[in-house]
## 1
Amino acid sequence: MADQIPLYPLRSAAAAAAAAANRKRAAYYSAAGPGPGAERPSRYQLEDESAHLDEMPLMMSEEGFENDESDYHTLPRARVTQRKRGLEWFVCGGWKFLCTSCCDWLINICQRKRELKARTVWLGYPEKCEEKHPRNSIKNQKYSVFTFIPGVLHEQFKFFLNLYFLVVSCSQFVPALKIGYLYTYWAPLGFVLAVTITREAIDEFRRFQRDKEVNSQLYSKLTIRGKVQVKSSDIQVGDLIIVEKNQRVPSDMVFLRTSEKAGSCFIRTDQLDGETDWKLKVAVSCTQRLPALGDLFSINAYVYAQKPQLDIHSFEGTFTREDSDPPIHESLSIENTLWAGTVVASGTVIGVVIYTGKETRSVMNTSNPKSKAGLLDLELNQLTKALFLALVALSVVMVTLQGFVGPWYRNLLRFLLLFSYIIPISLRVNLDMGKAAYGWMIMRDESIPGTVVRTSTIPEELGRLVYLLTDKTGTLTQNEMVFKRLHLGTVSYGPDTMDEIQNHVVDSYSQTHSQAGGNTTSSTPPRKAQSSAPKVRKSVSSRVHEAVKAVALCHNVTPVYESRAGAATDAEFAEVDQDFSDENRTYQASSPDEVALVQWTESVGLTLVNRDLTSMQLRTPSGQVLTYCLLQTFPFTSESKRMGVIVRDESTAEITFYMKGADTAMSTIVQYNDWLEEECGNMAREGLRTLVVAKKALTEEQYQDFESRYNQARLSLHDRALKVAAVVESLEREMELLCLTGVEDQLQAGVRPTLEMLRNAGIKIWMLTGDKLETATCIAKSSHLVSRTQDTHIFRPVTSRGEAHLELNAFRRKHDCALVISGDSLEVCLKYYEHEFMELACQCPAVVCCRCSPTQKARIVSLLRQHTGRRTCAIGDGGNDVSMIQAADCGIGIEGKFRHVGRLLVVHGRSSYKRSAALGQFVMHRGLIISTMQAVFSSVFYFASVPLYQGFLMVGYATVYTMFPVFSLVLDEDVRPDTAMLYPELYKDLTKGRSLSFKTFLVWVLISVYQGGILMYGALVLFESEFVHVVAISFTALILTELLMVALTVRTWHWLMVVAQFLSLGCYVASLAFLNEYFDVAFITTVTFVWKVSAITVVSCLPLYTLKFLRRKLSPPSYSKLTS
């Protein structure tokens, strides 16, 4: 049925029916209320031909194909939800919305954002700036000195649990409501807040130190009096800043001068956009031509820059020099800029600062840090609300049974306070201390050395992840290219057979060298020999030689020689031999692939020793230097997917057109062959980046004809790009296929098994990268992010809603295939079909988004959280990943150790979640059991609102008597780490959240009610003559029951757990001697006391032990077979 969707405008007899359907559909959309649906009728009227495409339904379910009526309702139904009205809306969250809106309005009033404006920046004169610009300081802190305490308190009291205890503690200042001592309420609350504030302060101080380190980096600033050192944070708009090689650019600048003769430099932008290619930046020609550096102050010039923008790939501005006649005007574009966060890769550069601090591109693309709350914390918050309702219900029942006598409302409040232990304040203390313990364990794990836990509030999130969003460059790959394969059609060379290539190159050059030596008079005979060569089948040696020469000439690589002390700086390269020394040479190019190819030709004997704008020099294995004149260069573009050069050999005057590019672009250009497509597929499956290399010999006449047409096309005013492309394409016909090269972007160690493990654990992996589509697809396959058996759907570039519609319908018909989509197409899909696209993408086993900006990465993460409600984790290694990491539920910043992520999730994530779930429920049980005893006690004694245990007994119960054993649950483990690593499928169960749910909570409530009832009734049945004995018997039995329940809950014993049990028991026994006001020492030393306590404890615990034993026998957990 899927293939029968009409994909073109209907112009048939069915047009009338279609028109009726359109009217029906338009009526539906207009009735849909505000939102995307409401805009559609007007858009249909505007778009003539494409409107028919847009009207077609985007079907989201198989049922839609069978039922024509439902087709048109599928799209808006995804978005339109029934809105609640009036009181119902207010109760169901409307109050929260109103409060938030009011707070936001107040904040906006207090902190009105300054309007961003275009600016005129005078070179070297920051004081001439008309506006005040922000400081150039980086700030990643959440709070300031003034907002720290209010901010932390707000974060704490937004949890119902803490707010409830604040109210309860404050109520103790009212004499009529006072129950026991003030410290029994305020001490635990104070301790919770102290722990939280201390932890936040430490995290905040670490952030402050990291910011300070970056802001204190020193740079050279050019002034009239010479160079001065200035801190990064003190740089102002208008300053002239000198940035050395391998130094970070401190602010957004316009590039004025460089030490490179060509007037250009390379910069690394991987921290800004994730792209591994080096970018070529060009200095403003007017300032580059100035004789000396100090002359920048002798001219009167300014830069006009557009207002600060988010887009890191565009810039518009002008450079004006006023003191020349006539004034010089130069237009400025993205190639004249140096953005903050990039790194200078060649030479020393001087730039004028145009944007600082918050207005730089990198900061504008970074979101503000937010406090993250874990899913477990939110679930516990829900449970505490349920407990509060139970508390209110219990208090109302007590007052009702009293018969509403006297001041019943006061009694109600007193009951609320008496039973307030139902919601234990120690829950937050224990959980926070548990989180700190998990962080410490992660940092101490020798299997993942060097791990630092930056935020100690969300370790349990690592055990609940469904989506993992990872960067590519530096995260999955090392960004180091290695040449792996050369294929000539009949013969293939790999890493083991490179020495054969070297021998062929040496042989062929020794032959040509001897020929050249025997023929010194003219260059004509070799040309004749060359022209007759195609008639005979070439030997392997000559084909290897041609291929290597083509790879050595067809590129944009420049060799750079580090200047050494004492070397003559003005000497010409061609004349000074020591400049060619291999150890002193480094290669620079816009792409690491290019460098890998040139380094490979050097390793087989053909070395690139020099390159400028017009020529290139190669050194042969015998040491001879060959000079080639660079006639034309056609750079690589994402549209053409190929690059080419036309060179003239100085020794033979031969003109050759070399070209290399992607197999998709080159397969139609080269002569017919039967091997290229197959071999490209083979190399791609190995995870290699392939390039097809071809050549074409040109006569002088052919080249002159081409040059005149090419120059004419470049001067045309209309459709220049198309005309230039057409002229170049006239050459790109019937080219001789030389070879196919394969280069590998080396993966980080252990990436493949780690991704395999995470996939088995049920985690869906999305790769978000700023890199090119081909590169991203290649890495997705080589890293096994996309498994070998899976198809890959490459989403075609779309620009309009109609195109997006058709492409989504095409993608919808594919099953179990990975999606590869570019950032631009993604933007269009999200604009028109957000819900539909996310629903389709979430069904894919893997998704690759390429050409993503930092803000797009963060948006994808936010949409994924919003549409699925599942937990997400973002992994990255650079500044361009910060927004994504902040947007995710859990973020991991790594330095080339991706293999550790597997252990972090399946071992530490699992144990953190399981332990916190057990700890949280046990602490609730501890509160519920004592509240049940209080309820039984009050009901027996005529519903009196009198506390059963007072003063120190209550404080001791929550601290010294039970704290250590209960907290020792953070050492428990249900599955050994090596088992969890071996069977990652166990992780799938965690995402269902079964360890902490209303079901498990209800089980603990029933246990608490049973045990509390048995302990209290038992003590009353075995009542002695005095009331003090009831307290002694019931409290001792309670402590013993708690210790036994901890032992019942533990799955794997640790020696510290045993110590904690005996320590707590020892503390209790020792304290009996001092608590004379609560216990009768003479009675508690008798045999009667011992047997009564033992009997009550056995009755309260034995049934539970029996049930646990039977459950393990009859219904063991999924992992029990693995551990046995």
## 2
Amino acid sequence: MAAGSVNPFNLSDSEDEAQQRPEDGVDTERSPSDGAPGPPSNNPFSLQADAEPPALLLSSTRTSPSVEGISIAAAAMAGGLAETRVSVDVIAAQLIRDQYILTALEFHTELLESGRELPRLRDYFSNPGNFERQSGTPPACKDQGLGQGGPLNRAGSISTLDSLDFARYSDDGNRESDERVAVLEFELRKAKETVQALRANLTQAAESDTQERNKNYKSNHEIQEPIRPLEKRALNFLVNEYLLKNEYKLSAITFSDENDQDFELWDDVGLNIPKPPDLLQSYRNCGSALPSPRDTVDVAVGVESGELTGNYITQKHDLLQQQQTEVVEELEYQISLLNEEKQSLADQINKLQSEIQSLRRTVSPPPPDQGSHLNSLCSSSTPLPPQPPLDNSQYLDITGASEPDNPPTESNPPTQTVSSPTHTSTQPHAKLKYRGTVVFDQPNRKLSPAFQQALLSFCKMSADSRLGAEVSRIADNEESVMLMLGRCLPHIVPNVLLAKREELIPLILCTACLHPEPKERDQLLHILFNLIKRPDDERRVRMILTGCVAFARHVGPTRIEAELLPQCWEQINHKYSERRLLVAEACGALAPYLPKEIRSSLVLSMLQQMLAEDKADMVREAVVKSLAIIMGYIDDPDKYSQGFELMLLSLGDPSERVVSAIHQVFIPAFAAWTTELGNLQTTLIPSLLARIEKLLKQGEHGLDEHKLHMFLSALQSLIPPLFSVVLQNAPFTHRVNLKGNIPPIEVTRFPRPASPLQDLATIVGSRETLSALLILYDYQLEHEGTTGWDSLLWVVNQLLPQLIEIVGRINVTSTTCVHEFSRFFWRLCRTFGKIFTNTKVKPQFQEILRLSEENVDALTGNGILTKATVPVYATGVLTCYSQDEDRKLLVGFLEDVMTTLSLSHAPLDSLKASFIELGANPVYHELLLTVLWYGVVHTSALVRCTAARMFELLVKGVNETLVAQRVVPALITLSSDPEISVRISTIPAFGTIMETVTQKELLERVKMQLASFLEDPQYQHQHSLHMEIIRTFGRVGPNADPRFRDEFVLPHLHKLALVNNVQATDSKRIDIATQLFEAYSALSCCFISEELMVNHFLPGLRCLRTDMEQLSPEHEVILTSMIKEGEMKVENRGIGQAEGSVSIAASLVGEDAKTKFLSKMGQLTTSGAMLANVFQRKK
């Protein structure tokens, strides 16, 4: 140790002892671990020693002896005492005896480094028991007062003196934790050495075991021992490595979680050998045995550079290439030989199997007199010819036991009885045939056969019952097993719990497939279809249907027709819908395996009957799906008309499930068949269009909207097949190239299909094919035109004109019809693409609508603007694409329509229909507000009036923010318009705001504006304004805010009624009275407080009755009844208690009071007495 360093063991336990130590400056000793050179006599553990005993030499009161003290004592002994040799073993023994463990450990380490290992120290430190609780007390522990049995602080270290941290130690002697760390480090090193030794032993054992198993495998490779833990860990490591290398990360994580093993380190496997090759390399080398690492030796040889010739490397490369070529040729030759041998063996196997089958069919049972001869043959020493395997249609009878050579008798049956397959069903034991005798060891006894038989009779065996007969014989082959199962299953099934009967399905199916008797097969299939009383979806689909399909694949079309279909026919009218559902789904699942004649006749008729007669929605839905499968496999063109009728029948079904199934499954399948027949454009689509036209002719006074929806939805489902026909019959189909980089199809290119069968990629074949066709389709339309493209020309020249003509004939006020045709044209344009829409669809609509400047001021010849063509074109064609130019075109079209209709004084129904359809989608609210603002600032008062009325339609769907920011300012602007007609036109929109908006600020602004209309003197004689306000109050009053109704509507209605009493003009008076009557009728359904009833509602009714007495006596009778009813309510104080409102129609329990009331009003032609009874309460 260098000068100035501190010996870690030179520490004192007390201050007194520290004062007795030499000065720190004197440093004459060196630690043995320093390795410094010096004379041998200076070594404290040199062979020089004095005559003092070893205990005197090493005794100390310190916890660990001071090396310095030892060194001084050794020097003193070397200088003046008699020379005595002290052995190293004695020093080790003294250190261990006095419990100087750390000193002994350092001593042991020094000896190990010098190559002189001491057995005593090695054994001591190798024994963990020496470091547990000690029964003895070391001297140091006695001095410190630890007492008997104190724990020994483990302190073993493999560190040298230089590597220790001296800052850990203090002069108080408390070093237990540091000593424990040192001992634990030493134990860890010993444990690692033990593990390495165990691994070496394990490797040796594994290698020897592997060699032994390889020998066994060569001798008998069919025997496979269970995997051993060591093999399992090694394979787990390789499998995890394979998963990680091939990017199966989730699988690797799951695999690692399921195995308690460290996959990061090969040493964790437990083998002290290098890691083997990965799984891929092992698989590639599986044909050749890998050499064991113990059997190979790396040998290196060298050659002087001068000994090599100039062309040595080239010759070596050519030689290697030649050798490899020869090896490859030899291997290819061997492979060809093996293939020839394999083919030859396969032919022999087939030949032998055919011979076995023919022998089984032609073999006949031996005559009775040959039984003894057969037995003699079996007992003779002559070797028998090779016997056939045990699967030869025989039964092994175990009902009795006898000598092999005993003749078969009734009391002593033969050892082996065989039933003939041709008579099994009737006489299973009547006829026997030779199978070979089983020989048993016979005791060396002389018992008589009778005594032996009597003795065996005490074994309780009985074959009298059915079950006993089955148990007493064991089937020898598959046919015998099938016969046994066919007899036993009918008795097993009724005794199995319903919840567990599905476990019998595989057994029933296998038996039904392989059983030789048709009657038994029919019984088994009957059991299968009746196995579960009401099979749920999982049992029906996943088990029974799957089993039926597997049965069909196995037995072929003939047996399906003869065995499975009768079972379906029996269940077609079953009382449980689950059974009928099973039949409907089975017909579709079995369709691919049926004969085509049966598929298009019997099965089609069964499904047609179920579709027409079954009352369960889910059954009819399954029938539709099965019919679709039939349509996918049918090839009889004569069945087209039947399929079309089935489609119409399903479309008219009242169940939404059935209609959804017809669109998702049946129509795509039927369209695919009609496409193959060439009837899609010539027959199917024209037939639907003809039915729509016929419907329009019949519905001039009332259109059947349900049927129109039915036919139009079918046409909409035919759009994808129609587009596929256009693509596949285009002039560019021969130029389709699927090689190279084909760009993907945009996600929004096509509308979302209702099912995979309506996906164009599925119809065409693949997304790559569809993408390639679309590229050529767009290029053809844009640059080359449609010449020679018959399928597309049919769409342009026949389909589109006919559809536009039909649209012009529908009722524009029918929101449903407008919506249906809008969605149809939207799907048509989105499917055929933007180029087609811009170049083929829009021009045809624009030609019909003719929105040019010279036609703005006159509607002559332009009545089409009032038809449904306007909303369909606006919402179905112009909204297909949402780019800026498309939106601008839509805005311009709506502005032109609004201007044209306004200036021409034409009905606004077509414009209203457009706003209603577009307003249903919030995306178009800003656009519609832009159109209306164009009308607000228009120079024509007619256009401004139209804009004001359109706000009424838009307010209901627009959010309150837009109402506050865009709608109300525009209405306020119009309410101050110079033209009184414009101001009046804003009243319905203000009323709608009061009905729908909840913001108080907006409501107050609208209320103030309406109040100005009613209270401003300039409007006192505005008859049309008063009419509009009363009409608006009657419309929005029941739904408006109650406070607005009570504080504003009812008082102003009362005032208007009073003013109308003094109206001089009868026409105006009757107009106002009629509007007041309708308003009061609507408000009578609302809750009205007693105060309002007395102050406003009843007085207003009395004023109105005064007008009606002179102008309309029929109304006067009804008003009188209403007044009496209201007065009675006030008198009885029943408001807000039992009934909660002063509803004039309180007698109409469970019905819409207003509707019922107005319907009663329509009966004004009856007598006054009957009218008076309208408002009488039911007793």
## 3
Amino acid sequence: MQLDNNLVPDNVRLIYIDDPQRTNEEYEFTGNEITTSKYTVINFLPKNLFIQFHRVAYIYFLVIAALNQLPPLAVFGRTVSLFPLLFVLTVTAIKDGYEDWRRHRSDRNENNKESLVLQSSKFQSKRWKDIRVGEVVKIRVDETIPCDMVLLATSDPSGVAYIQTMNLDGESNLKTRYARQETSLMSFEGGLTSGVIRCEQPNRNIYEFTANMELNAHKVSLSQSNIILRGCQVKNTEWVVGVVVYAGQETKAMLNSAVSPSKRSRLEQAMNKETIWLSVFLFVLCLVVAIGMCLWLMRHQMQIDTLPYYRKSYLIKGKFPGKPYKYYGIPMETFFAFLSSVIVFQIMIPISLYITMELVRLGQSYFMIEDKHMYDSSTNSRFQCRSLNINEDLGQIRYVFSDKTGTLTENKMEFRRATVFGKHYRNSSMVDGSTKDTETAEPTKPAPLPTKGRKLKSDITVDPHLMRLLHKGLDGSEKISAHEFFLTLAACNTVIPIPSQSTHQGSMGTEIHEDLEAIDYQGESPDEEALVAAACAYGYILFERTSGHIAVDVNGEKLRLDVLGLHEFDSVRKRMSVVIRFPNNDVKVLVKGADTSMLSILSEDPENDDLSLVTQRHLNEYSSEGLRTLVLAARDLKGEELEEWQSMYEDASTSLADRSSKLRQTASLVESNLRLLGATGIEDKLQEGVPETIESLRQAGIKVWVLTGDKQETAISIALSCKLLTADMHQIIVNGTSESECKMLLSEAKAKYGVKCGGFRTQSFKLKKGAESDFVEVLAESKLTNLPPEDDGNRELTMGGPLALIIDGNSLVYILERDLESELFDLATSCRVVLCCRVAPLQKAGIVDLIKSRTDDMTLAIGDGANDVSMIQMADVGVGLCGQEGRQAVMASDFAMGQFRFLKRLLLVHGHWNYQRMGYLVLYNFYRNAVFVFMLFWYILCAAFSTTSALTDWSSVFYSVIYTSVPTIVVGIMDKDLSHKTLLQYPKLYEAGHRQEGYNSYLFWIMMADTIWQSLVLFCVPRFAFKESTIDIWSMGSLWTVAVVILVNIHLAMDIQRWVLYTHISIWGSVAMTYACVVVLDSIPVFPNYGTIYELAKQPTYWFSILLIIVVALLPRFTIKAMHRIFRPSDIQIAREAEILRKRRFFYGSRVFWRSTS
């Protein structure tokens, strides 16, 4: 056997059919056992710890705990110092262990399933994990495929099988797979099965398969239509038989099971800068303590032997009589003082913040998922949070990149227009009272019922003139073109006809039980389904499809057409063609595709040229109405040209190297000199609420760019319908055919409209700085008025209106791959709207990257199809729609939902809430830990720079883990600065995220200044209050513990905008929990603070000190907040006050009404 000349043996995989021993001995393929778990019993502990310690903060706290184990640095108890880190590691390990146990259980269940495998000429049950490459497997209806198999035979004599790929790609529609005719009638049980399959090495591409099969010295091609993949289910087919080519971890499903890399939120990245500053603070505090210790020791070095804690030996009557102290000298004592200070001040870097943020994001995601306003009843789909790391990024989006088809539109196609042989026809629902087309003025009649008893499930109205033309004798050019036009619609596709019995209604409403077959079509795109359904409505009913032929019922006459070859649609050719042989042995090529790719390959003759001009005019009309267009053409194939194509097609389709490019070359041979038949116009309606959503996003300062593969005219029409484009906009159209032309068009547009290089970013910055005062005032009746939309950088333009850039994919080829990106960036960012037409998937990603790489603005991409995946993954936030084009976009996204209109609520409401909450959460956690650290710092300065603590070890540990953690989480999940109604009514409030009002460096430094003041009050008030008393240091520590917890909780309470039951429970419950823990700790006799709380509680000074601490510490903060709210209120504060006033007016109005009625 000879291998493909274009492949070396290492790049080919040989499978001997029904000979697994020879197959696996020679190549050692993997078995079919799968493993999705990460751990085993042996490696769980080391591997889990290794993964957890990828977080630098954990390594920091491990070092701290290790330092505390050294005798000279044992500031805390050695066990106590390990508690926070062990707690975090243990909780995470338990969670990871439970998740992995579930994976082990799932793997065990999956591997122990059974299927029928050909063994000793009989199909016998065999566990999935024991199946090997090369074995022949039989799968029954509704069973799941255990491995990737090449289809050999099915219960259908034609070799067709129906499968559902929902478990693989999320698509619920049925797909057809075919067994080759050479094997479809092969006998397996009791017969001799042999042959060799040569295929590509395992890869992740589930939409391609390149292989060939050699049977009896005859080579046949195998493609994606001949393989069924692991995880798919057999439907509407009694059984299928296939040979295993990929098993276990090498199956395409398992190769695609890798988790996509997680994204990090912009706020978390900004938080790292402040974390570095906190590290600087920590270093400075420790350095101050170390220098102070050094100076203190140098000053008292002659008295060290007589000072407490520094004498060289214990007292004779002490705990250890005569035992010498370990005094290491001034240099080492200074160094130890620095390290001890690091241990004491360790919570300056908050370890609990990471866990808190994860819990808060989880809670936020729950409320987003449960939001009934983002539930789509038409698809029965709820909102999905597929990534928990970027919730807060939803509140800072500046650019939205949207697909058109299926995202702005419904992607439910309806056949509306057709131009056949230069005459255009329309369906009656497009006709209104003002139409002047006499051809559509007559009442529309339904298509006559075919005599064979077949009908389409959906009702489609037809044009009566076109129907009459089709039912006349085919003797003229126009009639022949009409016949071939609808034959192309019925034959040039990959749609699956699914027949089912139906009951026909009689004229009096009675049921007539006839042998009436209802046909439902399922295709890989709604476009194809709509075109085949239109052909069916006009009497060209596709009712059977196999790998070798199709059957079409033409007005009651069955027509069997042999499929000699199918050139599927690809993004390079932008067309599809099928070569068919008619019963009279005539061979025709039927082609459909985009006008840009079709009109250039028509034959050059006067009749075709005239017809092309008329058809182009009709296409422009259809596009201006927002219809999607396709051009149809055909040609005859005869003699040597047919033989040449068949030879090239057979070689290309069986090739294992560069098969797609070879097939493309083969297609170009027959896709030329075509005879134009006509064109179609399909309507794709706008989704509900799209214009309102786009307008709200625009008012919120968000730019919406549409990236579509449709024609420019169609895209412009849809953009006008959804109010993306408005009449007052100046449209800049860039349709270049060369690099020089594109450069000229961009330069002319920039010069005409005064766009300067880099000018947009400067203007944007200026607008941001002045935007705070741009909000409307609260009127006397306490109502907010609608705000004008943001100028988007156009305020300085003098041309009388905003700009809209419209650019095609051909121009982007020259711009994105040359040195014109900066020119496009300057022009595009100066426009309010950008509309990119005829763009390829990678060009969509390139446009997103253009903004993402050149600005700091947050980007969001939203789409519903596989062609949107690259764009979704490129953007900072990716949103997938559960649409008509499968679930590839959903599976690649960070968030998923059912309708585009939900984007308004997702960003303006949940995005705003999440950003404001998370920004405050981070700042509050920094404050909460820093105020505790500074309080300890002031004490150390007054304790001879020693690192002894007035607080017990457990109080220090419990502070951030138990005492103050719950209120932070509850507020981070449930607090709302504004109601959802206000946020939706006034979209401009969303710009608070653009201005980074929730979290910025200014707020951080204000917070640190306030922290230093509050910590000074915390330390000084008790010290002076008990100056003349005899209480010990442990009593003072107990007071500080309670006071700092009450202070930070009151601080938090001052900032809460929305009080609910859970908020009250968490805030006041935290204070109660602190007192309970202090009482318990002070009741343990072995602790040095035994009984202190009982003595302190008896003294009025204790309670007065706590009250004085709260008032004095928070007074500056309260004053500044009040002054800021009165004299420089933010947009959110104004809206908040308006909400409160409306509620009060409603409340008092209701009371007055109640009194008057009673």
